[in-house]
Each structure stands twice: as C-alpha cells, then as structure tokens.
Amino acid sequence: MGTPVGQVTGGAEPGLRASTGPPGRGRPGPALGLRRRRALLPWALLAPALAVIAALLLFPLARIVWLSFREYRLRNLVSGESDFIGPANYVTLFTDSYLWRVALPNTVGFAVVAVVSTVVLGTLVALLLARLRPVTRVVVVSCIMVAWAMPAVSGTYVWLWIFDVDDGIVAQALQGLGFLGPEGYNWFADRLFFYAVVVLNVVHGGFPFVAVTVLAGLLTVPRELHEAALLDGAGAWKRFWHVTFPVLRPVFAVVTILSTIWDFKVFAQVYLMPGGGVGGSEMLNLGVWTYVSSFGQRDYGMGSAIAVLLTLLLLAVTAVYLRALFREDELR
C-alpha cells in the first residue's frame, strides 16, 4: 500500500517536510520558520517603543555619565569644549562632608519615612474603600484622586500657605490654643520640621495612587479565603497579614518600588520650600543638590556626578528589594 497523503516518512516530526537532499543541507520546514517569526514578532512590535526610550532615556543618561568625567563649566558651555579630568568630580564628591552630613541623610531618611507613610496610608484607605458600597466608593475615589491630579508645584504652595509663619492655618490654630506666641514660628528654618512638611506634601500627593492600586488588588482576593480565616478565629490583622498580603505581594512590590523611585528623586517639593533651593543649605537632598550645583553654581560636571550617584543609588535600592521579593517567592 502507498503512503497516505500527509504522512511523513522516515520518522520525521509532524509538520515538517522530509528533505530529499543530502543530510544537513535541507531547508527548515515551514513550522520552524513560523516559530521563528512568532518569536521575533513581539520584538518587532516593541522596536518603535524601545527606539523612543533609547533616544529619550539612554542618550541623556550616557551624556550625563560623559559630563561627570569632564570639567564642564559656563565657559565650556559657551565654547563647546571641555577637558577630561577622569574621576576627579567623584573624588571631590565623595570627600565632601556635605554629601555625608546633609544631602545623603536628607535623601535616604526622607525617602524611607515618605515611602512607609505613603504605602501604609494608601493601604488603610484601600481597606476602607473595599468596605464601601459601589456608589459611595466612586465618590470617595473621585475626591482623593484630586490630590493625585494636583501638580507638585500647586500642592507645594498649598502646604506653604498652611504652614505660613504669620497667617498659616497651623500657626493660627496653635496661637488660639496658647501653644504659640504672636511672633509665630518659622517651620522652614528647622531641618526636622522642614522635612516633616515635605513628607506631608509628598504623602498627600502619593497615597491616592497606592490606595487605588491596592483596592484593585483587594477586589480580586477570593472571599472564601477570608471566610475560612474568620471561621478559624483569625482577627482583622491576622487575616490581612496571612491572607491578603501574600496574595497582593506583587501589588505591594510595584507601589513600593515606584514610591521609592519617586521619593528618592523628589525635587519640586523641596526646591520650592523656603531655603530648599539655596546652595549650602541644610535642607538640600541629592536631587536639588544636582540642580543647584549645575545651574546655580555652573558646575555641570559636578552636577552630573551627583546625578549619576543618585541613579546608582536608586538602582541599588530597587535591585535589593526585587532580590528579596524573588527570594521569598522561591522559598514559598
């Protein structure tokens, strides 16, 4: 009997035509070519976006790294020529006591407090929203999203007005309660109070994003898990920590990493505060120090070195957090 139509002889894999030529010189079958095209299709679709990202992000980043190894001041900006000085900017940066005494502690300390406060407040608001009726939930979400939509500059001036030395709401309330004299108090002259106001500003603008994101995750947690934990006698905290949090671990990873990136490089909320944009001030963080060094003191090489340090710090924090997250997933 003859071989049925479509059956491949010689033990060849289904979907591949048998080669009639010498071994090793046949063409790949249509199925193999189809698999290659399917593997290349996602990269072809992503190519335009990757090209735009490379042009908008990678080139400026490479330019900053290049500037950090050169002496680039105002005269170099005019002439277009600069001198290669190697790691001199980094040596000056790491031997400057201002980095270790002011800029780095302000950046790291503020970011830790702001990230924890934003995630905790956003999670509490999300838990509250999950208990509301749909109509009420929509109204509340619409109200809190106003803070998220408010520009950083506008939000900063609102908090400046609240903590104004003479006519601020806080000063008037404390004066009415007898805790503050008629002379008022300059909240922005003290390093601790300065960053306390900045934390309030950043948390006010950042918690709606965390709340809405965590709420979306809460609505996907099966109700049966909570009912089973409730039958086992678990309280509200145990149900959240042992049921809700493990399910929403990827959601918390996303909001924590994004909040960390945003709060480490916060700029407007510090720069616009009184004393926050003055060179040598005790209030500068790495982001504002980069701007002050580059455009205030016209030392673009040093400003670029500070920017590179901030970028490496962000990458290190993100990598450590992701590594810890993935390690916990592997151990489960």
From TrEMBL:
Alphabetical GO biological process terms: transmembrane transport
**Which cell locations does it reside in?**
Cell membrane
Membrane topology category: Multi-pass membrane protein
The UniProt transmembrane annotation reads 43-66, 108-129, 138-162, 192-219, 240-262, 300-322
What superkingdom heads the lineage?
A: Bacteria
Which CDD domains has this protein been placed in? Answer: TM_PBP2 (cd06261)
What the entry lists under Pfam families is as follows:
BPD_transp_1
Regions of biased composition (Low complexity) lie at: 17-29
Instruction: Look up keyword Transmembrane helix and say if it applies.
Output: yes
Renumbered residue ranges of the record's region Disordered: 1-29
Gene Ontology annotations for the cellular component aspect, listed alphabetically: plasma membrane
Q: Which UniProt keywords apply?
A: Cell membrane, Membrane, Transmembrane, Transmembrane helix, Transport
Locate the ABC transmembrane type-1 domain: which residues? 104-321
Q: Which family does it belong to?
A: Belongs to the binding-protein-dependent transport system permease family.
Q: Which PANTHER family match?
A: BLL4140 PROTEIN, DIACETYLCHITOBIOSE UPTAKE SYSTEM PERMEASE PROTEIN DASB
Protein name in UniProt: N,N'-diacetylchitobiose transport system permease protein
